[in-house]
């Protein structure tokens, strides 16, 4: 976009997009997103309430689950205002500064989720490989320190992003390709030298997703080695079963990320709707699935839910 003097400038508002090429079905997408948000918010609030109220859940594993649910709630609430405005009220505009704030929180919560999943893999590693020291290694103070460390790391690495975007002029229009603000999407309409943004963005992705995923794989390699050393097949299955919820959560988070990366790398000619849908899966599916996964796969969570349900019926 050009100002009165012919120079590029930052627009007062940016225009958000729904699902490209599917404008006739916006009402259905509005309904789908409302259902996804309802499941995500109610599910994660239920997990938070259960961990606080049930003494049996006051254990390291569930403290990490509390962090994951709190973070998933943050992811959902970060995207909710603009997504509902776009699909439910047909309002496609967002202020430039508000867009930067949303971008910051979306990416921060996404990177925090990766760190929390790494912390949960360490929890499973200690529980299986060194169970006698589990309570002494994962004390409440250390769990709090790990949570604050994840928050600090994500906040400090993402903090420069809004300022790096703010310094750029915008001359390629003000239309974004999603119903929320993401850094790569903003780079598509920015002018000037965006090499710093791209290089720093790549560094942050490697420093978070790359490092975290490597350590998660290492944790499970050590867990698998310890499980295979167990003589009893029943004990092996029992040990692996304690990891299934976390494995499903890791897959729900990382598979969409890998899919998005593969599409960007090897299918550059993919229709815009493919990129948008995969980005939606990456942001909306994990916060919705995680409460379901832990409710189905974790006996203590199921009991807590049934207990709360019976109380409400009494």
Automatic annotation (TrEMBL):
Record key words, sorted: Cell membrane, G-protein coupled receptor, Membrane, Olfaction, Receptor, Sensory transduction, Transducer, Transmembrane, Transmembrane helix
The UniProt record lists the keyword Lipid biosynthesis: no
GO MF annotations in UniProt: G protein-coupled receptor activity; olfactory receptor activity
TM annotation in the entry: 27-51, 63-84, 104-122, 143-165, 199-223, 244-267, 273-293
Pfam family, one: 7tm_4
Superkingdom of the organism of origin: Eukaryota
Keyword Membrane in annotation: yes
BP GO annotations: cellular response to lipid
GO-annotated cellular components: plasma membrane
Subcellular localization(s) per the UniProt record: Cell membrane; Membrane
Listed PROSITE patterns: G_PROTEIN_RECEP_F1_1, G_PROTEIN_RECEP_F1_2
Protein name: Olfactory receptor
């Amino acid at each position: 976009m050009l100002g009165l003097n012919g120079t590029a400038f930052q627009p007062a508002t940016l225009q958000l997009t729904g699902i490209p090429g599917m404008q006739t079905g916006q009402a259905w997408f509005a309904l789908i997103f409302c259902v996804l948000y309802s499941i995500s918010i109610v599910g994660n609030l239920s997990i938070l309430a259960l961990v606080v109220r049930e003494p049996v859940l006051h254990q390291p594993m569930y403290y990490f689950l509390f962090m994951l649910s709190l973070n998933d709630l943050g992811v959902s609430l970060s995207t909710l205002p603009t997504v509902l405005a776009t699909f439910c009220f047909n309002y496609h505009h967002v202020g430039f500064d508000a867009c930067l704030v949303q971008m910051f929180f979306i990416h921060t919560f996404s990177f925090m989720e990766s760190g929390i999943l790494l912390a949960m893999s360490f929890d499973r590693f200690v529980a299986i490989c060194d169970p006698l020291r589990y309570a002494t290694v994962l004390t409440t103070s250390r769990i709090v320190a790990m949570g604050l460390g994840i928050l600090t790391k994500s906040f400090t690495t993402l903090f420069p992003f809004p300022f790096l975007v703010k310094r750029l002029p915008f001359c390629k229009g003000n239309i974004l390709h999603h119903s929320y603000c993401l850094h790569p999407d903003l780079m598509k309409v920015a002018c000037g030298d965006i090499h710093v943004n791209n290089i720093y963005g790549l560094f942050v992705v490697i420093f978070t997703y790359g490092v975290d995923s490597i350590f998660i794989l290492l944790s499970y390699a050590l867990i698998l080695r310890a499980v295979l050393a167990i003589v009893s097949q029943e004990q092996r299955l029992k040990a692996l079963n304690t990891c299934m919820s976390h494995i499903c959560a890791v897959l729900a988070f990382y598979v969409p990320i890998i899919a998005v990366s593969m599409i960007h790398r090897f299918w550059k000619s993919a229709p815009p709707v493919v990129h948008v849908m995969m980005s939606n899966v990456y942001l909306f599916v994990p916060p919705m699935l995680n409460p379901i996964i832990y409710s189905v796969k974790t006996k203590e969570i199921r009991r807590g839910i049934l207990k709360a349900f019976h109380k409400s019926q009494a």
